[in-house]
Amino acid sequence: MRDFKKWQFRITLILTAAILMSCGGNSRSWKGNSKSAKDSLKVSAIDSMIVAVEEAKDYERKFALADSLEKTGDISPVKANYWRGTALRSMKKKAASEAYFKKALEVEELQEKDVLYYSRSARILSQMLSVKNDYEATLRVATPAVQKLAGLPKAQSGDLAVLYYVIGSAQMYLGHVEDASESYEKSFEQYMKSISKKDTNGSRIRSAITGINNITVACLNTQHYKEGKKWNDRTDSLLYVYRLRPDADSEVCDHYRARIRLFNALTAYEFGHRAEADASFAAFQKTDYAATEQGKLDANDYLMKAHRFEEAAKNFRTLDHWVDVRGMKMNLDNISMYLIPKYRANIGAGRKDSAIYVANQIVNAYDSALVWSKRDDTAEMATIYETHQKEEELARSQWELEKRGHDIARQRMISFGIGILLLTGFLGFYTLNKRKAFKLLQDAYDQLEEATSARERIESELRIARDIQMSMIPASNLESEGLDLFASMTPAKEVGGDLYDYFLEKDHLYIAIGDVSGKGVPASLFMAQVIRLFRAMAKQHYTPADICTRINNELTENNENGMFITMFIGLIDLNSGRLDFCNAGHNPPVLGGDADGGNFLKMVPNAPIGLWQGLEFEGEYIDSIKGKPLFIYTDGLNEAENPDLVRFGDDHMLDVLRHTEFANAMQVVESLKRQVEEHRQGADPNDDLTMMCLKVG
């Protein structure tokens, strides 16, 4: 098999060389504007050759090809330096790769053919610098890059989104919060621009989910929890849209659903909402991701914050195996990120022997980390020399290495001192806690009465809000000649984000059902705004598609929280039975009366309302639904979960409807409601539940 791959690689190079020779011309300059067939063929052949080298993982040859092709004028310096940088990065020569990415960005006048490689070089380099926590250098690279790329037709939205994200994160870590918020918004705009284009396999929206989730992480790491909550909600909204895709990856959905729930727990705890925090963390633990080693380590962010040290210490048992599997070195950053929290968890859990063991791990790892740091610096300096980097960069690296050599003895003494301090801290921990215990207990009693009073006040206010919300939706049943309609809405919390509405004028009936992203008070306020807009436009006799378009234009204006709503809007002529409708990212209704006893409607996949400005929603119609029950619902029905997280499911719902003999609309809705309650087996509702059933004629 290896021989076959070698021959395949050699054949590719030979064919490519032949193409290059046949395409050769007098001009080898990249300053011209020629776009002849020969030039296009040559570029394609060069790119194919690079792909073949990468597939063979022959990164040294890739580096050599970049040198050769630049000398012959077949590729530009920007493209050559990008290839050199990626080749060295694949060979783990980070310092040298950074130097070549910087060279790729030194171009004064950016040509159209170089935009892609320029933006990729800027994106990769800024990410590498950000990972090293070198935020000033990150800004020096990324800021001029976005300025140069802004407005260029060939600039990639995905690259710009990442660049604005790393700029925002650098600003956030440096304390420039307002500037960071502005950069994050620009990143979000680029992600939205990217996913508004054709997304064949969902890769664009997955990248957007990852990027916005990373913004949340940066906000939480810098303790800007309010900002982090906003971006976590936006991640949740995008994940909801992704989950509606038929090709959605269930593992990706579970992974980010888990992270969203974990981040909700962290922010709720920080805001003092301890019950909500525990509930969100319990929801996180029910995901598949939470059971993985990575999930257990992530869970410790919350467990340590909540002082649940026993559980955190138990999770940290997987750390050694997790590190070994990944071949991870315990460098200084990893000691701080993993071993120090592991030590604190064991101290908090009262595990004296385990704490001493981890303290020894820290001391040994710290000493080794200093040696590795020296070796890495030496290797990187040699690479820079071998690849003819700038003399000042080499001199600076040498000076830093010499300085570290002089300091190594002192640093080893510090590592020994850390071990002594950790052990001393352990003994002091128990002494201090004994003194604090009584005071903490007294404070708890003092706060209990105040907390009880506050809880009762909040519960009273939420009951009032629920009453106001329920008063906004019409009666459950609508009695009219030739029409049988019944609807039901059950919020998962005191107030919810689902809605249903109808408007009857003479022989025309408007109906609507919707599901706002998120739950609770923000969702209920958004829902109230949608009902107001729907009623106003129905009274003006707009078509369902026009109503969706106009509501979308209203909601996307100043929608800073990124909220959206899925909706099904219909207009029924009670005389003819004609149904005009528009489905805006909502679950497909079920229409009965066919040979199967009912099937999902096949509809145009419009986007949810509120995500993007300027969308034109597409409407559809059915000639007549007379005598055919129409059942509309929100995902609180088909996604209702039992204690084992098994969902009610589309197939089960359809089976129930097919085997429910239609007596009246109310009977159908109540039957489904009972089925859902039985399926939950006592578990709390995980989402609002709204259903509507109607029959004309």
UniProtKB/TrEMBL annotation:
Transmembrane segments: 413-432
Molecular-function GO term, any one: phosphatase activity
Alphabetized PROSITE patterns for the sequence: PROKAR_LIPOPROTEIN
Domain PPM-type phosphatase, first and last residues per copy: 480-696
Coiled coil (UniProt feature): 441-468
Domain of life: Bacteria
UniProt-listed InterPro entries: Bact_Sigma-Reg, PPM-type-like_dom_sf, PPM-type_phosphatase-like_dom, TPR-like_helical_dom_sf, TPR_rpt
Keywords, comma-separated and alphabetical: Coiled coil, Hydrolase, Membrane, Transmembrane, Transmembrane helix
PANTHER family, sorted: STAGE II SPORULATION PROTEIN E, STAGE II SPORULATION PROTEIN E-RELATED
Protein name, entry field: TPR/SpoIIE domain protein
Lineage, opening ranks: Bacteria, Pseudomonadati, Bacteroidota, Bacteroidia, Bacteroidales
